[in-house]
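Incident log, entry 3
Record: Lysylphosphatidylglycerol synthase-like protein (323 residues)
Problem: checksum mismatch between cached and fresh output.
Input:
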Amino acid sequence: MYRALPYKTKQFFFVLLKLSIVVGAFYFIYNKLTTNNQLDFEVFSTFLIKTDSVSVKNVLFLMLFSIFNWFLEILKWRDLVSIFTKISFKNALQQSLGSLTVSLFTPNRIGEYGAKAIFYTSEFRKKIVLLNFLGNVMQMLVTILFGVFGLYFFITKYPVDISYHSSARFLAILILISSITFFGLKKKEVTIKGVSIEKVLLFFKNIPFKHYLFCMIFSVLRYFIFSFQFYFLLHLFGVEVSYINAMIVITSMYLLASIIPSIFIFDVIIKGSVAVYLFSIVGVNELTTLSIVTCMWLLNFVFPSILGSVFVLKFKLPKSVKS
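Fresh output:
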């Protein structure tokens, strides 16, 4: 039906779609800030105003961390795409921030996959989806690796009431699901959206090792940047804690928050709940913790998604991509 429409009608609907995405993203941001059951926006803004350490200099310093965070993500994406086609830093910037805007209100950032794929012609879109999956998996792997160590030291250092029976049951279920998934992937006839698992595994196998290495390095550097940013906010809001002790809690928080499926717009709520629980054990009050989590969300997701909305509005469907 879409192909049968006149050209001007197609253009009208395309512009309407882009406007709807941008308006939808801004509405979700506004709604999240004004209807947050955990932290009232007036309380949050009053808390920031009363905090003596919040100055223009510190805000710029925090934003610089956010810029470096996304700078590394853009470099990571450009390197992954270079496996089959060369793109400029500008194109990688547009694709990364534009897809962030689209994914802001989709479950588990699923919209990012389609948003990045639409920047390319149909013959490349399946590859783009797989490369985006690889980048996200690498970032998750880094979160898990640091989080496991952090959670171990957190449990041994602080008094935490753990139900070992429930933990063992959860671990057993996780192992069972992983085993079923593993043996399912070994069957060559299994397909995902018409693509066999065998072809997907072959695609990842043929990726040169250097791209895996660069992807891991960029993911680790990003992790260090946004975790230090969280630590800096702790000190900014008057929490006296050493870097090591703070990282034990921060890595544990990111691990627990990451393994809980969520709609991305509610990601700040989940991180807030986990952070409040963990930081309360080390003596940080709820208002401070929730304010820091909200600041992290504003700096690393809201700010770049606003920039990304410009790229969404300027987006044009690709005509051809040189391989």
